[in-house]
Structure formats: structure tokens, C-alpha cells
Amino acid sequence: MEMLEKQLANLNIVKRSSGKEEPTNLLGIDTSKTMQAEKGNLVAVLCSNGSVRIYDKERLEVLREFSARSGFLNGVKFANSCDHVYSSCTDGTVKCWDARLASEKPIQLFKGYPSNIFISFDINHNDHVICAGTEKIDDDALLIFWDARMTSQDISSTKDPLGAYSETHSDDITNVCFHPTNPNMVVSGSTDSPVNVFDISLDNEEDALVTTCNSVSSVSSIGWSGKDYKQIFCMTHDEGFYWWDLNHLDTDQPLTCLNIQDVREVIKVKEGPLDYLIGGLYHEKMDKLFVVGGANTGSIHLMNCTTSGLVHVASLRGGHAATVRSFSWNMHDNSLLTGGEDAQLLLWKPEAKEKTFTKKESMKIASSVYHRVRVHNNESYKRKKNH
């Protein structure tokens, strides 16, 4: 077994959240990119009650919580250069909070167009541009862009959009993901199956569209991988997995590296069933892409992604008691944070173990954020799939 696979197989729980906070599903996790964060790295967690909690990473205790009075927050992302944390909101705004400060008001507000309901967003590598995806309203599903740069005059101000892309998606835009190093490249996915790659440095939407990859189904998660991040991967709401290589755009080679319509049908795990996919984990130093899935009982399954298929590497058991919804991997210390429907936030590290251990029962709290994305409305992509 190679070193990285061995590290993943040897992950053990070193800390879990105290449980003193209100029980809620943990739907998204991001960690601070700066080393100046208060008392170690900060962790931002999206909760199913529509709020964002800020945790201390090592103690896993809640430092503060941000809520939107006029809607539900969904999606969570730290800036790359400071401890500002962003979240899109169903009230048609993207809110920016200072994770170091306890405040009821965001320090910056990015306002969309009338009737916009944002269900996905991201901020680019240099923290200059925010992009958010909307629910479909009438016949429109939009990608909205803002200038995210902040001056002293911008604090507590409201910013209007720079513009929008309106032609390339025809249903709810469930995912927006900027390139990890190129601030002009962004990929988006929606419930109508297209995964679109854009170069936003170009003048208009038609020119900006680099390529469209077809996931055949409703997109649940997308990300970048490969050397220089020239590949993209995608998970779907019916547990499909797709992997494309953008290096082949100008060659005769196919873009598709891997195409699995239902991972549950092809992956067999000795440690229990694989019920769903959570996301992808690209390890830059090792140039390896891992797919993270799980079982409804709380087990987490890690799979190595190759052009010949997915290979089960390790399973993490004994931590969660219900479906795991989110994770965040730290390449610097090889730690893993996971959160799920049992209202627990867990910190895993290689070959370490927590001192006391009590597995909690699932809270089974309905997720208002997941209800915002109409994943049950699958008839459109089913028709495409059958023709």
C-alpha cells in the first residue's frame, strides 16, 4: 500500500464537537487558509438551520454563529487571503462575515437581481470575483458575478452585480467552483446535466464558454483535479461519477477519463454498503484523486480514482451514526474534518485516537438547504437519459 493510501487507512478520530450547540445537520465545511486565525485554524460549517457556525479546529468548539434574518444561508467558503467567510443566501444576496468577530450583520453584502434565489457560489483564487448560481425562475437560471475587492469605503456596503451569464444553464445551478490557481476559470453544474467551463476574462458569455461536458444527470458536486488542475470531476444526485481531461480539448483524444452512471452498482466494499457519494478529494502533492462516499449508517468510504475505475482504499467507521454530508481535507497535516446528519463534527488524523468515545445517534433533521435544490424534480434529465 502506498504512503498516501496508508495514511487514509490509518485515520482515527482525535476530536468531536461537544454537542452543546443546537442539533443540526452539518451540510458544508471549509477551513481558514490563513495561519493568523484566532487560536489556530478556523472552521466554517454550514448548518441545516440556515446558519454558519465558526469552530476552533483543534477544540471543535463553536466560537460564533452567523444567521440571515431574511433567508437561509447556503454554501460556505473562506476567502483565500484573510479570515472573511462567505455564504450565499436564499434572499438573493451573498453575505461576507469576518470570522474573527461576533456580529449580527455581515461586513459586506452582494446583492443579486430581483427574484434571484442563490443556491451555489464560489470566490476566485485572488478573492477578486464572486460567482453565484440561482434557482430556475420562469425560464432563467443565472450565474451572477460581483467584484469582491474591498476598500475601506466598502465595509458594510451593498454591491450590485457586474453582470450575469443567462444562456448556458436552463435549470437550478447547484454548483459553482473556481479553478484553484487560475482566477479566470470557473466550472458550473446544474440539475439539467451540463457541466460548463468558462474563462471569465473574455468579453461575453458565448466567448467565455470553453467547453460543456454532459453528466447525463443532476449535478450534486464538481471540482478540479490533475496536474495544473486541467481536469474536472462531477458527482450526480443519482450517485454517478464523471471525470474529464481538459488537456484533450484541442486533440483527437476523448475528454472523458471515466464515466460511471451509478457507482453503487460497480463498487463493492467489504466494510459495508456504499449508499451515496459526498465529493472528491484531489491530493496535489501525490497527484491523486480520491472519491469520498458513505453508508447511511455513518461509515465513510475512500476510493482511489483511476482511468480504469474506482478502487476502494479505506473505510472510516465508528465515528458518525448517520449520513455524512460534508468533509474538508487538509494536505498540510493530513487531517480530515467530517460532518453529517448526526449533528457531529469530527476531526480525523493518521494513527491518532481520541481519549473518550461515545457514538451519538442520528438527529435526522430535515435540511432546509437541501430542500431549496429541487433534486426530486428529475423528469427532465430522465427524459434525456432515455433518448
Explain this structure to me?
The protein is mainly β. It has a single domain, classed as Methylamine Dehydrogenase, Chain H (7 Propeller). It contains four helices and 29 strands. It has helices at residues 3-9, 205-208, 368-372, 379-385, and strands at residues 11-16, 26-31, 42-47, 51-56, 62-67, 73-78, 84-89, 93-98, 108-111, 118-123, 129-134, 143-147, 157-159, 163-165, 173-178, 185-190, 194-199, 209-214, 219-225, 231-236, 241-245, 256-260, 276-283, 288-294, 300-306, 309-316, 324-330, 335-340, 345-350. The strands form seven sheets. Strands 6-7-8-9-13 form a five-stranded mixed beta sheet, with no helix packed on it. Strands 1-29-28-27 form a four-stranded antiparallel beta sheet. A hairpin with a 5-residue loop joins strand 19 (219-225) and strand 20. The longest helix has 7 residues, at 3-9. It is globular. The termini are far apart.
List keywords for this structure.
single chain; 387 residues; mainly beta; Methylamine Dehydrogenase, Chain H; 5-stranded mixed β-sheet; 4-stranded antiparallel β-sheet; 4 helices; 6% helix; 44% strand; globular; disordered C terminus
